[in-house]
Amino acid sequence: MNTNKKTMIEDLERGLYDIKDNFDYSYKTETGLTPEIILQISEQKNEPVWMTEFRLKSLQIYHELDVPPWGPDISELDINNIVTYVKPKTDLNNTWEEVPNDIKNTFTRLGIPEAEHKSLAGVGAQYDSEVVYHSIKEELVKQGVIYTDMESALREHEQIIKEYFMTCIPPRDHKFAALHGAVWSGGSFVYIPEGIHVDIPLQSYFRSNAPGAGQFEHTLIIVEKGASLHFIEGCSAPKYSVNNLHAGCVELFVKENARLRYSTIENWSKNMFNLNTKRCIVEKDGLIEWVSGSFGSKVSMLYPMSVLKGERARAEFTGVTFAGHGQVLDTGAKVIHAAPYTTSVINSKSISKDGGKAIYRGALKVAANAHHSKATISCESLMLDNKSVSDTIPALVLLNDEVDIGHEAKIGRISDDAIFYLMSRGLSETDARAMIVRGFVEPIAKELPLEYAVEMNNLIKLELEGTIG
Amino acid sequence: MNTAKHINREESIRSSTSHNLNTLPATTYRWLKLNQLQLEIPDWDSKHSYHKEFLKNGDYDINEQNTQDIVLKKMDASLLLPNHIKASLAKKMEYGVSKEVIEECERSYNSGVFVQVGKEKTILNPIRIDYALDQDNPQVTDFNLIYAEANSKLTIIMDYSNSDNSETIHKGATQIIAKEGSEVTLVKIQRMNDKSHHFDSIFSTVDYNATVNYIQVELGSKNSVTNYKSILNEAGKADLASIYFGDGKRTIDLNYLMEHKGRRSISNIQTKGALKDTAVKTFRGTIDFQLGASKSEGAEEEYVILLDKKVKSNAIPLLLCSEDDVKGHHAASAGKVDKEKLFYMMSRGFCKEEALKMIVEASFLPTIEKIADHELRSIIQKEIHRRLMNEKL
Fold this sequence. Notes:
The complex is a heterodimer.
Chain A: E1 25-28, H1 35-45, H2 49-64, E2 86-88, H3 101-109, H4 112-119, E3 122-127, E4 130-136, H5 138-142, E5 146-149, H6 150-156, H7 158-164, H8 175-183, E6 188-192, E7 202-207, E8 214-215, E9 218-223, E10 228-236, E11 244-246, E12 249-254, E13 259-267, E14 272-274, E15 277-282, E16 287-294, E17 299-302, E18 305-308, E19 314-323, E20 328-331, E21 334-337, E22 343-352, E23 357-366, E24 373-383, E25 389-398, E26 403-412, H9 416-424, H10 429-447, H11 450-465
Parallel strand pairs in A: 3-7, 6-9, 7-10, 8-11, 9-12, 10-13, 11-14, 12-15, 13-16, 14-17, 15-18, 16-19, 17-20, 18-21, 19-22, 20-23, 21-23, 22-24, 23-25, 24-26
Antiparallel strand pairs in A: 1-2, 3-4, 5-6
Helix pairs in contact in A: 1-2, 2-8, 6-7, 9-10, 10-11
Chain B: H1 9-13, E1 16-21, E2 37-42, E3 70-74, H2 83-90, H3 99-107, E4 113-117, E5 127-133, E6 139-148, E7 153-162, E8 169-178, E9 183-191, E10 197-206, E11 211-218, E12 223-232, E13 237-246, E14 251-260, E15 266-275, E16 280-289, E17 296-306, E18 312-321, E19 326-335, H4 339-347, H5 352-368, H6 374-390
Parallel strand pairs in B: 4-6, 5-7, 6-8, 7-9, 8-10, 9-11, 10-12, 11-13, 12-14, 13-15, 14-16, 15-17, 16-18, 17-19
Antiparallel strand pairs in B: 1-2, 3-4
Helix pairs in contact in B: 4-5, 5-6
C-alpha cells in the first residue's frame, strides 16, 4: 500500500488551548469520593439542606450503579485519583478587571471578552470548579431574563432550582449522572420569561486548569412559552500527563412554542475523559436545535437526548466529530418521540485519522402514542487512513405504524476520482484533499455561530497546512 | 407467557430456560434492550426425534455410492469426512444464535446432510430437503455441512413446515465452505405453525472469487430466531436476500454479520418485511470491514411496511470499519404503505384491502423470484396472500 498517497493531517493545532496557568487555588478537596468530601463541598458552598441530602443520595446511587458494559474502555479512569472540587483563587466577579490576571489572561487568549464585546448578550466563565465571571446585558435583565451561575441561582431562585434540578437527568440515569449529582459545581442557569426573544447569544465557557481534577458543571436552561434563545457552550483544558474528568450535566426545558439553539464546541485536551450528559424536554410546538462539534478529549461519551413530549415538537441535531491519534470519540444523538406529529432530523459527520476512533452511537424511539412522527437520520464517516476506526451504531425502535422513518449511513474515504478531477483543474493533490475535507464538514460549519465556525475552520486549516502530499 | 387456560398437562411438565440469543457484535445502550434477545427455549430432551424422510429422492440416490460429481449423505457420526474438509472444520468458529444452541446442533443432531460438490462440477437441479414436523416428529435438530470445491456450483433448498398443529421445535446449524470460484445458493424457507419454535444459524466461509447466496423466507413460528454470518476472503462475494412476514403474536429476530477480511470482497444485505397485528421484529445487520479488506464494498438495506398500530419494529444496522479504502452503505426505513401508491391502485378499481395486499406482495416478489423452485414459489405466495387477507375476509 502506498502510504505516500494518503493525506497526512497533523493533529489539531492546540497552541493557545494548551497554555497552562500555575495551579493556584483557594480550596480543594482531597482526591477520591467519600461522604466527607461531599459534605465539604456542600459546606464550602453554604448550600440548603435539601441539596446536601441530594448530593449524598446521588453518591449512594453512584456506588450502586455499574460502568456501562458497552462503548469505549474507560477503565483507565480512576475516580479515586480525581480531585472533585477545586475552588479558584477568586470569587465571582462582574467585571473582567476584578478577575485575577492569570485567569483573565487565559480567557482573553480564548477570545471570550472580545466575543462578549462584539457579539454576545451575556457571558459566564468557569475556571475549574467555580464560575469566576458572569455578566448580562442590562436590557435583558429588565425583560426578566435571568443568566447567572448555578450557585447564585440556588441562593436567589431556590424554588425554581428545586423544581427543575436533575429532573430531566435523574442521578439514577447512569453512573456518571449520579457522580455529577454528588459533586456538581458551577455551571450556568438561564431563565427566559414567556414571549421574550433573546436575539444575541449567551455564552458560557468552561475552562479546566487543575491537573487530575474533575469538572462537574451544571447547566440548567428554561425557555418559557413562546420565548427563544441561542446558547453557546465552549470548553477547553490544557494537557497534563494525568487524566482529568469532565462529567457535566446540561438540562434544557423548552416550553410550548419556544425555541432553543444549543451550540457546543468541545476542545478538551487529550487527557480528558469527557462523560457529559445533555438532555432536553420539548413541549408542544417547541424546537430544540443541537449544534455540536467534538474535537478534543481522550475519550468522549456524549449523546445529547431530545425528548419530544408535546405535539408537533421538533428536534434537530447537527454534529461533527474529529478523532485523531489516541482519541476515542463515541458520540451521537438520541431522540424519543413521545407525542404525535413530532419531527426529528439528525445529521452527523465524523472524520477519523491517525489511529483515532470515531463512533456514531444513536437511538431513536417512537412511542406507541406518537403517531404521524417523522424522523430522518443521516451519518457520514470519512476515514483518512487505515489505522483509524469508524463505527456507526444506530438503533431504531418503533412502537407505532403511522410513522415515516428513514436512516442512512455511508462510510468511505476521499474518492480518487474527485482528487483526480480537482488536480486536473490545477490544484495540487494536497490542496484537493484539503478542499474535500473542508467541503465535508461545511454543512456543520454553516450551523455554528460565526466565531465558532471561524475557530473550527482554523483548527482544520492548521491541520491541512501540515499535509504531506 | 402461557395463560392458565392454555396450559395442558403435557405442557405443564415441560420446563424452559432463558437464553441470550443473537447478541450484537458491538453492543450499545442497555435501555433499548436490543443488544440481544432474551427468550425462553423449551427444554426438550433428546428423545424427541425425527423419523420422516427429509431428503427428497430426486436425482440423487444417497444409498448408492456417490459419483464424483457430488457426495450427498445424511449427517452421521460415522461419516468419514475427507481430510481436507476435516481440516477446514477443525478451527472452531464462533457463530450462531448462541453458543449453547450451536453446540447442541453439532453434537446431538438428529438430521441434516453433508454435501460435497466436486471440482468444476455444476449441479443443475437444486437439492431439496424438506422437514414437516408433527406430533410424532416434534423436533428437528439438523446439522448441515456444504462443501463446494473449486469452481463448482450448487443450489440447496431447505423447507421447514408442520403437517399438524402441535408444538414443535427446530434448531439448526449449517456451515458452508465455498472454495475458489465456486457458487453456493442456499434457500431456507420457514413456514412452521404458530406454536412452534425456530432457531437457525448459518455460517459461511467465502474464498477467492467464490459466491455464497443466501435466500431466507420467514413466514411462520411463534418465535423465529435466525443468524447468518459470512466470512469474506479476498474477492469473495456474499449476497443475502430475505423477506419476513410477521403477523399474530410472532417474534422475528434476525442477526446478520458480514465480516470482510480480504481485499475486494463484496457483501449485500437486502431485507424486506411486513408486520401486522402485534408482531415484534428485530433486525440486526452488521457490515464489518476489517483491516486488510481494502477495496471492499458492503451494502445493507432494510425496508419494513407497518400494517398495524400495535406492531413493534426494531432495527439496528451497524457499520464497523477499520479500513479506509472501502465503500460502506446502510439504510433502514419504516412506514406505512405509500399513500399515493394506494390511491393510484384504488383509482384503478381495486378495493383498499386488495390494493394493500398487492403492494406488500410486490415488495416481496424480487426475493421470491430468486427461488429456483416453481412449486415453492407458489406455496410462499399463497401463504403470504392467505395471511394478508385473513383478517379482512
